[in-house]
Amino acid sequence: MRFYGIPSEERVLEVIQNIKDGEWFFEDTNAKLKEKLSAKEVKERLENILSQIKNWKLQMRSIPNNTVFVFVHEPSNPKVFKIYDTSSLGCSSSLSPPRWKIYLKEYEDQVK
Question: Which of 48, 50, 66, 91 is least buried, going by the fewest C-beta atoms within 10 A?
Fold first, then answer.
């Protein structure tokens, strides 16, 4: 499954508008939380996370504005999102697991 990084918060908002109805899941990998959400709830959750990302960029001046935290499979028809937090930043040779995963039920086995 190929993911595309979304370089700006404005573009993330555009992608969020393309979310279709269906049975969605939200996972917080730090809290080990998994919830079933409606498409409307997914949009709200993504907007809340987006606000958090904007705050990180304002508060941590060392984070460039074009730092990518949100990745999506098929931006024009989003079905899976992987969202990283500031712990993913640094000089590692591999990306740490995403902080949040949001996906349609039929992609559950592919998101692990």
Answer: 91
